[in-house]
Design goal:
Low-confidence stretches: none
Largest sheet: none
Distance between the termini: 19 Å
Oligomer: single chain
Number of domains: 1
Mean pLDDT: 89
Helix content: over 70%
Strand content: under 5%
Structural class: mainly alpha
Number of strands: 0
Order of helices and strands: HHHHHHHH
Amino acid sequence: MELAPYWADLGLWGLFLASFLAATILPFSSEAVLVAFTLGSWPLGTLWLVASLGNWLGGMSSYGVGRLGNLERITKWLRTNPEKALKWQARTERFGAWAALLCWLPVIGDPIAIAMGLGRSRVIPTALLMFLGKAARYAVLLWFLR
């Protein structure tokens, strides 16, 4: 694991940052960094909390991009077509804040968060359900690693 020493040098801030970045449009795996951290002496509960908070805040930043932006700007910035963005928005609006439970999914989680922002889903339920989904994913991963 080549990146592990760099993230480990930053301590828990490294895990937080890796988890945050993985929840943005950057292609990155926080799971690999989390697994590397389990090889150290950190308590699993601490690793779970730090990774969950970092990933949740990263996901909420993607939600914020959608909420603060508009369709034209976001599709131009993300280099995607508006029809595709509107389909994502319609899908997330159909499920409301519950769609935030799926923001942990690789590849489609970030578009879900951005689409929820574009659709102006309610912030508090979205934030709570997004945290629940992301935290559950890390809990399952750590449970298998214990």
